[in-house]
Amino acid sequence: MLRNILLFVFFLCFIAQTSFANNLQLGNFDESSTNLTAHTMSFRFDLSQSNSWRTLVSHDAVWVFMKYSTDAGQTWHHATMAAKGVNPAGFVVPAGFEIVVPTDMKGLFFRRANAGTGDLAVKLVQFVWDYGQDGLTDDVAKAANTLTRLYGIEMVYIPSGAFFAGDGASSSDFRFKKGSADDTPWYITSENAITTTNTSASGYYYQSSGSSGESANGEVFLLPNSFPKGYNGFYLMKYELTEGEWVAFFNALSSEARLKRDVTSAIDGGKGSDGVVNRNTISWDSSSPVLKAKTERPARAMTFISWPDAAAFADWSALRPITELEYEKAARGVDIAAVADEYAWGTTAYRAAGSEEIFPPNQDETGSEAIYNSTANLNRNPLGWSTGDGRVAGAAQGQKGPLRVGIFAENATSRTTSGGGYYGNMDLSGNVAEPAVTLGRPEGRQFLGTHGDGELSSVSGYEGNATNVDWPGINITDSRYGVTGTVGIGYRGGDYQSASLRHFQISSRGFAAKDPDSEGLAKRFDASAGIVYGARFARTAP
Q1: Are residues 104 and 129 in contact, defined by beta-carbon separation less than 8 angstroms?
Q2: Which of 470, 441, 446 is nearest to 224 (CA)?
Q3: Is 324 in contact with 255 (CB distance < 8 Å)?
Q4: CA 176 to the chain's CA centroid
Q5: Is 101 left (phi over 0), alpha (psi -120 to 50) or beta?
Q6: Would residue 69 count as lying in a domain?
Q7: Where in the sequence is the domain holding 143, given as residue range(s)?
Q8: Left if phi > 0, otherwise alpha if psi is -120 to 50, otherwise beta: which for 17?
């Protein structure tokens, strides 16, 4: 059986005495044994990661999953693990670490077993693939044209517990509050159903942004038990989706699906170029679908993606969307008192990084992005950086756009100076706008929190779409077509082009229920606001 490996790796150009938070690498991936009786195959791999950690409150982890192809790489499918639970039989991990396989067995979490911090270099981690469960015979699984690829995404555990949604600010911006005259935040104490109320105080009052189709001020509706309210624990991507992760996903799609997910085309508001546009460096020759897409900046936050694009990645990687309540919990923390107008790092102060503080002075834009001013914690450049920004040249010179994910996190940075959320998720304020399932529309409230199964639509004309029927944007004519729209999704956290500072604040809901389909906006970006949409996804904790 031939082996192939594709990694989500953040390739970084290191600067002297500077260390970056993101540098996950998987290596030496290969088959170790086959059990023809059980129809399973064991694999080993090595894992290295910069700045891993576990405390008594939370921890980071790596979501690891495998894809396989039985036609020499033309099409790829999601592999099923052979067992579930903590360190199940046949799964091997060195002392001090553990593997956790969720009940759907679509991958595994690799994490520290005990408290600790620092870089990891772990060898000979073993998992077991149940190829029989995936419908393969022994002969097909062992055939020379059957290939496998391994992927990993860094995640952060958001623990179970009560939290505040809304920050008590009287400046509105459509924040959650208890009544028409009561700015006190909602207090989420369980996953039980919530019924909104039209009272002046002490209820669950919905404050509308007035978007087309959105619930009105004080509208009474049910947020059912099944809707993830953020009380239960979940894992959330440590960083925003990167260009490197997107290219890895895109190159595993069928030729038909690639045409639907091609951000370099001008269709649906794509960037219409293989060149650098708003610092997006993705390129692909769509006239030759066998060629692979490329990125010059794999650690840069991904842009130009519509909600159907983002949902496809979530389904393919066996993750799920987050809700806007989960966003607030990840940013603010469990039982942490809300601060009016606070940003994701827990204060009301910020410092946006200027280009002269990001790029090496007097050099081209090479991707060697680092922060030279340790007080900067926000990427906000609504007018673009000056063309005389200290660089000699470069295709992206002077362009507004996203930065390397986690750029503000260095060795000695605090939560405030790293720009991180309470548990260590980076860039929850600024950089790119992140999709979150809205409470403000029935199409959002139907979300059940289901995970992707790793397989996308293969229906002719709809190849490459996410297929979870409870996700926002599911095709209302025929759910087999998958996620084709955007109704029920909103955006949180602001972006590099946000004109108002309110948009970066944890509880700001100015775009939480806006819908590109119904409000006349291009599917991949808002033409009046710029190309700003990215993504970040979650998984309910096993």
Answers
A1: no
A2: 446
A3: no
A4: 24
A5: beta
A6: yes
A7: 25-154
A8: left
Question: What is the Cα gyration radius of the chain?
Answer: 22
CA distance 463 to 257: 5
* Centroid of chain to Cα 425: 10
Query: Which amino acid, one-letter code, is at 460?
Result: S
Select from 267, 247, 265 the least CA-distant residue to 313.
247
In 3D space, the residue among 91, 93, 71, 69 whose CA is nearest the CA of residue 82 turns out to be: 91
Q: Based on the structure, what is the number of domains in the chain? A: 1
pTM recorded for the entire structure: 0.94
Contact 99, 149 (CB under 8 A): no
Measuring CA to CA, how many Å separate 208 from each of 62, 258, 519? 37, 37, 16
Residue-wise pLDDT tens digits, 86-144:
999 999 999 999 999 999 999 999 999 999 999 999 999 999 999 999 999 999 999 99
User: Which are the contacts of 351, defined by CB distance < 8 A and separation ≥ 6?
Assistant: 373, 375, 376, 377, 378
Residue whose entry in the numeric block shows the structure tokens 């709809």: 462
- Distance, CA of 261 to CA of 259 (rounded, Å): 6
Intervals of the chain under pLDDT 70: 1-22, 355-357, 359-364, 386-395, 397-398, 516-530
Q: Per the structure block, which two tokens stand in for 105?
A: 């067995």
Q: Is residue 113 part of a domain?
A: yes
CA–CA dist 344, 358 (Å, integer): 21
